[in-house]
Design goal:
heterodimer, A: alpha/beta, Peroxisomal Thiolase, Chain A, domain 1, two-stranded antiparallel sheet, 15 helices, 11 strands, globular, B: mainly beta, OB fold (Dihydrolipoamide Acetyltransferase, E2P), 3-stranded antiparallel beta sheet, about 5% helix, ChsH2_Znr (chain B), NA-bd_OB-fold (chain B), Thioester_dehydratase-like (chain B)
Chain lengths: ~400, ~140
C-alpha cells in the first residue's frame, strides 16, 4: 500500500533574491522572495494560509527572521504558523511539515521562508560566522574547554570529522577536491551563483588551509539572501502556472552524539535513517535517483552523505566520487547549481531550491535528467538530517 | 606544570565544574560518574544521558586515552593562538571525549589512534588538561 503522504503535495512556488553581498534586512530579503514565490505560484497573498519560518545564523546573532515576519508580510489568513530551527535540516523539514498539514486539512498553501544576512559591509565572510570566537567572553565551566583548545567556528568539527574518515577509510584530499571542482563546474552555468570562475584540482590544493584537512575551497560560502517555497495540494498544483514538483518521499534522522566511545557522529550520519524512511515512502532506492542536491556546507559532507544514502558502501565515498561522476557529464549529477560551496549558502534552501529548478526542467544549460531527485539537508555538525525525494511525475 | 601567559580564553569554573578544575590544579583528571549505571561523563551535567539518573560522584580517571581525531588550525580566530596549532579530541580510556591540544609532539606526527596521557598546564588561575604521546618503554 502506498504511503499516505506520498505525492499528496507538490511545490508550486519558488522565490529567490540575488545572493551574496546584498545589504538589506532579513525581513526585506524575505519579503522579496515571498512576493516572487506568490507570483510564481499564481496566487494572491491572501491565499497563503500557512507560514513556516527559518532564520539563518542571524536568528542567533541578531537581526534574523522572527514570527514578526507575518505582520511584515501582512498575512491575515494563517491557519498554520511556526518558527522552526533544526539547523541545515530545517528547509526539508518545513516542506515535510507543510505536506503533513496539507494532508491533515490544516492548511492549503504553505509558505516556507528562509532569509539570512550575516554579511555586513566592510567585514569578511569569515568574520560573519566565526566573529564571536575572535573575542569570546570568558566561558563558564567545561563548555569553555573548546575555546581553551582553540576549537573555534563551524570549520573545526567538520575538519575533525573529515580527518577521522580519512584515517578510517583512506579517504584522500583529492577526493574532497574533486567534489569542490565538480561543483564549481556546475556553478559556471548558474546565473545566481556567487562563484563562477572555473577552478582546477591544482587551484584546490593551492587554496589556503583553514583547518587541515580542509582548504578554503572545502568550505561553503557565506551569503545574504532569501528563498521562499510554496507547498500546495497535488490536485491543485496541476492547475497552477508552474510545472508541479511532487513530493514522493521524506525522512529525518537524528542519531545524536553521546560525546563518548560508541558515537560515530563523524562518519555515520542521520542520513542513513532518513534514507530508509524516504526510500520506503517513495518506493525507490539509490539506483533510481537521477540527480542529487546534497547539503554541502563542506566537501566532506557530500562524501559522507552519499555513503549514508547507499550510493556506495560506508567508507567508499572517496573512490566513488573519484571518476567525477558528480560533475557535469557524470552519471550522478550532484549539486547542479554549484551548491553551498560555489553558488550560495541558504542553509537547506540551497539544495531545495536547486531541486525545484531541476524538477521543473528550468535548469537551462545545467538541466539534467530529473525523474527522481534527492534533496538533503543537515546541520549542527552532522547532527540533524532531513531529506525529500522530488519528481516532476505525479505519484 | 608549565607557567603560561594567561592570554587564551580560559574557562571560569562554575559550581557544576569546580571538582574538574580543582582536580586539574591538583594534577588529577576528575570526571563525573553515574552512581546508578557507572557511566563516566563529560562535561559536567546533572543527569546521566544513559539512564537519566541524577546521582553521581566524581572520580579520578586514568588520564590515558587515544587521539579520536584532530585538525591543524591555520585560521587566526583568537590572537593568543599561534597558528598552525593542533585541535585534538582525545577519547579517554573511560569513554568520554575531551577537546584539547597535544603537547610535546610535532603537528605532523599526530595520528588518529595515537596513545596519549594527560599533562596539566596552568594558566593564571585555571589549570587545563593537555595530552602528550605515551612513550612506551
Amino acid at each position: 500500500m502506498a504511503h499516505p503522504l506520498r505525492g499528496v503535495a507538490a511545490i508550486t512556488g519558488l522565490g529567490m533574491t540575488a545572493m551574496g553581498r546584498i545589504y538589506r534586512s532579513t525581513n526585506e530579503l524575505a519579503a522579496e522572495a515571498v512576493a516572487t514565490a506568490i507570483a510564481d505560484a499564481g496566487l494572491r497573498k491572501d491565499d497563503i494560509d500557512g507560514l513556516l519560518i527559518n532564520a539563518g545564523i542571524t536568528g542567533t546573532t541578531g537581526g534574523g527572521l522572527t514570527l514578526g515576519l507575518q505582520n511584515y508580510l501582512g498575512l491575515k489568513n494563517l491557519r498554520l504558523l511556526n518558527h522552526m530551527n533544526a539547523a541545515g535540516s530545517t528547509a526539508a523539514q518545513m516542506v515535510q511539515y507543510a505536506t503533513m498539514a496539507i494532508h491533515a486539512g490544516m492548511a492549503t498553501h504553505v509558505l516556507c521562508v528562509f532569509a539570512d544576512a550575516p554579511l555586513k559591509e566592510g567585514t569578511s565572510a569569515g568574520a560573519a560566522y566565526g566573529g564571536a570566537a575572535r573575542n569570546p567572553q570568558r566561558p563558564k565551566g567545561m563548555a569553555g574547554l573548546y575555546a581553551a583548545a582553540g576549537y573555534f567556528g563551524a570549520n573545526t568539527p567538520y575538519a575533525l570529522a573529515a580527518r577521522r574518515h580519512m584515517a578510517l577509510y583512506g579517504t584522500k584530499q583529492d577526493h574532497l577536491g574533486i567534489i569542490a571542482v565538480g561543483q564549481r563546474q556546475w556553478a559556471t552555468m548558474n546565473p545566481l551563483a556567487q562563484m563562477r570562475e572555473p577552478i582546477t584540482l591544482e587551484d584546490y590544493h593551492a587554496s589556503r588551509w583553514i583547518i587541515e584537512p580542509l582548504h578554503l575551497l572545502d568550505c561553503c560560502l557565506v551569503s545574504n539572501g532569501a528563498v521562499a517555497v510554496i507547498v500546495s495540494p497535488a490536485e491543485r498544483a496541476r492547475d497552477m502556472p508552474q510545472p508541479p514538483v511532487y513530493i514522493h518521499g521524506m525522512g529525518q534522522g537524528h542519531p545524536g552524539d553521546s560525546g563518548r566511545a560508541g558515537s560515530e557522529w563523524e562518519t555515520e550520519t542521520g542520513a542513513r535513517i532518513a534514507a530508509e524512511t524516504a526510500y520506503r515512502m517513495a518506493g525507490v532506492g539509490p539506483s533510481d535517483i537521477t540527480c542529487c542536491q546534497i547539503y554541502d556546507c563542506y566537501t566532506y559532507t557530500v562524501l559522507v552523505t552519499l555513503e549514508d544514502y547507499g550510493f556506495c558502501k560506508k567508507g567508499e565515498g572517496g573512490p566513488f566520487v573519484e571518476d567525477w561522476k558528480l560533475a557535469p557529464g557524470g552519471s550522478l549529477p550532484t549539486n547542479t547549481g554549484g551548491g553551498e560551496l560555489s553558488a550560495y549558502y541558504m542553509w537547506g534552501m540551497t539544495p531545495l531550491s536547486e531541486g525545484i529548478i531541476q524538477g521543473r526542467g528550468h535548469g537551462g544549460e545545467r538541466q539534467v535528467k530529473n525523474d527522481v531527485i534527492l534533496v538533503t539537508g543537515n546541520g549542527g555538525n552532522l547532527s540533524y538530517h532531513a531529506c525529500l525525494i522530488l519528481s516532476p511525475h505525479p505519484a | 606544570m608549565t607557567e603560561t601567559q594567561p592570554t587564551i580564553p580560559v574557562p571560569e569554573p562554575d559550581e557544576a565544574s569546580r571538582p574538574f578544575f580543582d582536580g586539574a590544579a591538583a594534577g588529577r583528571l576528575m570526571l563525573m560518574r553515574c552512581i546508578d549505571c557507572q557511566t563516566w561523563r563529560l562535561p559536567a551535567r546533572q543527569h546521566c544521558d544513559v539512564c537519566l539518573s541524577d546521582r553521581y560522584t566524581w572520580e579520578a580517571a586514568s588520564g590515558r586515552g587515544r587521539v579520536r581525531t584532530f585538525g591543524i588550525m591555520h585560521q587566526r580566530y583568537h590572537p593568543a593562538f599561534q597558528v598552525p596549532y593542533n585541535v585534538t579530541v582525545v577519547e579517554l580510556d573511560e569513554g568520554p571525549r575531551l577537546p584539547t591540544n597535544l603537547v610535546e609532539v610535532a603537528n605532523e606526527d599526530i595520528y588518529v589512534g595515537m596513545s596519549v596521557e594527560v599533562v596539566f598546564e596552568r594558566y593564571d588561575d585555571v589549570t587545563l588538561p593537555r595530552f602528550r604521546p605515551v612513550r612506551d618503554l
